[in-house]
Structures are given as C-alpha cells and as structure tokens.
Amino acid sequence: MGEGLQRILDHLRDCQYRLTPQRRLIVETLLDYSQDHLSAEDLYRIVKRRDPAIGLATVYRTLDLLASLAVLTKVNFGDGCSRFELSAAKRYHHHHHLICEACGVVQGFDEDLLGGLERTIERRTGFRVHDHEVKFYGICHQCRQAAEG
Amino acid sequence: MGEGLQRILDHLRDCQYRLTPQRRLIVETLLDYSQDHLSAEDLYRIVKRRDPAIGLATVYRTLDLLASLAVLTKVNFGDGCSRFELSAAKRYHHHHHLICEACGVVQGFDEDLLGGLERTIERRTGFRVHDHEVKFYGICHQCRQAAEG
DNA sequence: CTTATCAATGATAATCATTTTCATTGAATC
DNA sequence: GATTCAATGAAAATGATTATCATTGATAAG
Ligand SMILES: [Mn+2]
Ligand SMILES: [Mn+2]
Ligand SMILES: [Zn+2]
Ligand SMILES: [Zn+2]
C-alpha cells in the first residue's frame, strides 16, 4: 500500500516540494482510484470528504504539479475537462484507451504493439517517437451483446 | 477546386441545412487551409477578412455542424482549444499526428497500419473498433538535425 | 524546542473558450 | 412577391481553469 505512495512522496521531496497534508491526501486518493480517470472536480469532491477545508485551487495545482513530474498523465476524452491517471513506469509507453460510442465506458488496453509502426514512422519521416497517445472508438463487448449479436 | 467544396455543400443541402453565405465562406476557407488545424478563433480571424460582419458564434455553430456531419474532425492538441480538420473519406480511418515536443509542429502520417492491432483488440476484449485517434510525441526531423544529428 | 523563511494554501476574482439567448435577417418554398 | 422558420450577430451566460493575495504552516537553522 505504501509502495507506490512512498515512491511518489519521495519524488516530491527529492524535487524540493513540501509534503503537505493536502498533497499526501491527493496522492493517496489518486492511488485509491487508480483504475479511474478523474477530473479535478471529481477528485475535489472525493478528497473533500476527508478534508472539508481543502480548496479546489489546491487540487488543480497539485494535479498540474504531478503531471509536470510525469507522475500523472493528463488525458482528454472530449467531455470538456482534463482527466488524469497514474503514468506507467518510465520505460513503458502509455496504455491505449478503448472508448465505447454507445455507453461511454473507457477501458484500458495494455499491450501497445506499436513498435513496428514507430520504427516505420522514424524511417520514413525522420521523426523520433518518444511516446504516443492512442484512442480507439467503437462498441464495447457489453453493448455488442446487448445489441443482440 | 469546386470538387470537394461542391460535395460538402451538397451534403449540407441534402440534410436540409440552408446554404448561407457564411457557411459557404467557412467551408471554402477550411478547404483553403486543409493542411492546417484551425481553431474556431483562427478561422474567425481569417474569415472576417472576407466578411467583416460575420459573427464568432456562427463560426462555432458551423464548425459544430460540420463535425456532426463528419465533414470535419475535432482534434485536441492540449493547447486549450479544439481544432478542426477535414475528415478522411468515409472508408479511411483518420491519419495520425506527429507532434514535435521541441518546436510544436504537427505533421500528419497517412498510413495507419493499425489493422493488426485492431484485430488483436477485438479478439482479446470483444471491443469492435470503428475508428482511432493516434498521436505520437517526439522530435521532428528538423529539430533532430538542428540538435547536431 | 523556538524562530525565521518562504512555499503552499484557500477564498476570491479574473480569464478564456464555448454556449446560450433573443431579436432580426434572409434562404427556401410556393 | 409573400410566408415561414432556420440562421445570424450581439451580447450575456456558463464552466473549466488560472491568477491574485493575504494567511498559514512545512522545513531547516539556531
Ligand atoms: Mn487509462
Ligand atoms: Mn491532421
Ligand atoms: Zn459500451
Ligand atoms: Zn520540431
């Protein structure tokens, strides 16, 4: 439990940032909700239950800070706000997102399988790929079954 | 020249939308700037030169309309506003975007080469893929050369 | 354990992209 | 040419995010 938490808090301290209770609470909550894609507002609502005095601005600032440290990744699903998720370990690229056009559910897909494409891009264009962000739009398994077939 | 323009205007009329001079001007301009990724504000500024009376709300409304008809695709490069580009023909998926982390340039990459990955996703998760949105982050050819090589 | 420092916080106001409202205009139809 | 109602432009409203600023408190020195 303290595993990932400790690593992140250490990272903050190593970068000279202060370990405030608000930051600790926010990081703990992000780990608790590591399967979700929380917006600042989502996170604020959750975190407020444990610290009713916390400010929305602090949530925004902390999310920005963690994203700047690459602890978090900011993602945009086109619903009018930024969402955040824990980043993959340094040597992995970010997982893909499968977005159901029927029910809106977002699921992750872990294998990236893009090495070949990235090498092709580099060969043909000279563009050196560092990372990618991939979204697939379609119909999830549940919705396909619900639609009979 | 009237080629793509006429097809889009016909599409509007077929869907019972009125062919106003504002819509015609906006579509013409989008075709003129088909290599770019214009924001509503960008487009407004350009279009205002030919019709100083045009309103920003009309630009927003027309972009929404064209996106709802799949004439345009809305893309988000994380710079605080939505951007638009002409959609690929119906049977093609959208092209990929290569985004340079050094100079910010966005270039397209046309072959999608994701058929295999999409089949793998469908096989393993039951998710039926209709389309994708793919961004690669890295360093463009120019910037790599500028950085010595 | 104090004390001093200055980063961090919370409340609030400000920004900025986008949307809504509403009176007026004009494209399409007959 | 007259009718109708979708489309427009100006302006206000909205909503996410950011900036401001007085106050607080984490951290490090004494
Ligand atoms: Mn995810
Ligand atoms: Mn493009
Ligand atoms: Zn679904
Ligand atoms: Zn570059």
Model description:
- 2 copies of one chain form a homodimer.
- Chain A is α+β, with helices and mostly antiparallel strands and 149 residues long.
- Chain A folds into 2 domains: 1-88, Arc Repressor Mutant, subunit A (Orthogonal Bundle), CATH 1.10.10.10; 92-149, 2-Layer Sandwich (Dna Ligase, domain 1), CATH 3.30.1490.
- Helices cover 42% and strands 22% of the residues of chain A.
- Chain A has 6 helices and 6 strands.
- Chain A has helices at residues 2-14, 21-32, 40-47, 56-68, 115-125, 141-146; strands spanning 38-39, 72-76, 82-86, 96-100, 106-109, 128-139.
- Chain A has a 3-stranded antiparallel beta sheet with strand order 1-3-2. Chain A has a 3-stranded mixed beta sheet with strand order 5-4-6.
- In chain A, strand 2 (72-76) and strand 3 form a beta hairpin.
- In chain A, helix 3 crosses helix 4.
- The first copy, chain A, is globular and about 50 Å long.
- The termini of chain A are far apart.
- The model of chain A has no long low-confidence stretch (mean pLDDT 94).
- The A-B interface holds A 74, 76, 78, 96, 98, 100-101, 107, 109, 111, 113-114, 116-118, 120-121, 124-141, 144 and B 74, 76, 78, 96, 98, 100-101, 107, 109, 111, 113-114, 116-118, 120-121, 124-141, 144.
- Strand 6 (128-139) of chain A pairs antiparallel with strand 6 of chain B, so a sheet runs across the interface.
- Chain A binds a DNA duplex (30 and 30 nucleotides) through residues 16-20, 22-23, 39-41, 53-58, 60-61, 64, 80-82.
